[in-house]
TrEMBL record:
It comes from the Bacteria. This is Chemotaxis protein CheR. Its EC number is 2.1.1.80. Gene3D superfamilies: Vaccinia Virus protein VP39. One of its GO terms (biological process) is methylation. It is an enzyme of class 2 (transferase). Residues 21-283 form the CheR-type methyltransferase domain. InterPro entries: Bact_Chemotaxis_MeTrfase (IPR050903), CheR_C (IPR022642), CheR_MeTrfase (IPR000780), CheR_N (IPR022641), SAM-dependent_MTases_sf (IPR029063). Keywords: Methyltransferase, Transferase.
Length: 301
């Protein structure tokens, strides 16, 4: 039975003292996270200061737990004094989550609207920024192969995390992902069978290494490193969401400078240029895929 008494019980606000103490803990954590990212930057040059605070705080908290640190300040001290743990720290701060043919309509848009124009170039450069564990690289390489373009394409696959890049280069994934990946591959306009592109062994699949033959894996930090290459296409999906708006603007500027005249930028479904300073440099080609083309005279390599 429910009655006013029960409801009152459930809706009772925490006592003021508990609220004050929760506020205090939150304020303290904010200071600790700020000091952690400042220390990381000053000691090692990795700049997370303009990442969105809410998700960054979650990741720093998880790192502290993973390191067995009692507090974030404790984690900061360990990070400062143990450079050999830096790759683990960077890997813990990055979110290398991806999947094959993620958002297949984006790949379909690339295949139908970008590949026919790329086909007019004798050599094609693609910069895939924030490639995580590489699922996106292999997906793109498969579609380029089927379009007859892979032979003359070089893919520069970059990420801030060395650990993620190593995994990407290995090209080994749980076999249980194959079925869903196959479904998305077909939705992306794949013309053969996804299973043609990997060898299964026990519970794992290894992607055909011919797909990585024209891929250069490189550590590159979008926040602190410069223009990467003269690209016909920059693919950077699900990365900018972690940045504050000013940092997004800075990175988008860098993409504009990296593109050849008339080059393409794809930022994927979770971001858009609507409120960005970079908006007037690009023409929207496909809203659902957030696919843009660099306007004449708007930067360009
Ligand atoms: C969520 S994953 C996106 C993977 C893939 N692009 C996709 O959409 O499926 C984000 C990736 O961005 C990388 N990243 C985060 N900050 C970065 C930075 N400053 N420079 C380069 N890569 C960064 C992370 O390491 C992570 O691998």
């Amino acid at each position: 039975m429910t009655g006013p008494l029960d409801t009152d019980d459930q809706d009772d606000p925490p006592p003021p003292a508990a609220m004050a103490s929760a506020r205090d803990a939150l304020a303290l954590e904010t200071i600790e996270v700020d000091l952690f990212v400042e220390a990381l930057f000053r000691r090692y040059g990795y700049d997370f200061r303009d990442y969105g605070k809410a998700s960054l705080t979650r990741r720093v908290r998880n790192l502290a737990t993973g390191f067995g640190a009692a507090t974030i300040s404790d984690l900061t001290a360990r990070m400062l004094h143990a450079p050999e743990r830096l790759p683990d720290i960077i890997s813990g701060l990055s979110v290398p989550v991806s999947e094959f043919f993620r958002d297949p309509h984006v790949f379909l848009a690339l295949k139908e609207r970008v590949f026919p124009l790329l086909a007019s170039y004798p050599e094609i450069n693609i910069w895939q920024a924030g490639c995580a564990h590489g699922e996106e690289i292999y997906s793109l390489a498969i579609l380029l192969t089927e379009a007859g373009l892979y032979e003359r394409t070089r893919i520069f696959a970059t990420d801030i995390s060395k650990a993620a890049l190593n995994r990407a280069a290995e090209g080994i994934y749980p076999l249980q992902e194959a079925r869903e990946a196959g479904r998305r591959y077909r939705a992306a306009g794949g013309s053969a069978s996804f299973s043609d592109y990997f060898h299964a062994r026990y519970e794992l699949m290894k992607l055909d290494q011919r797909l990585a033959a024209n891929v250069t894996f490189a550590e590159h930090n979008l926040v602190t490193d410069g223009v990467f290459c003269e690209a016909h296409l920059v693919l950077c999906r699900n990365v900018l969401i972690y940045f504050t708006t000013p940092l997004q603007d800075k990175v988008l500027q860098r993409f504009a400078q990296s593109l050849v005249r008339g080059g393409f930028l794809c930022i994927g479904t979770r971001e858009n240029l609507e409120f960005s300073q970079a908006r007037n440099r690009f023409q929207l080609i496909d809203g659902a895929a957030q696919l843009y083309r660099l306007l004449p005279g708007a930067g360009g390599a």
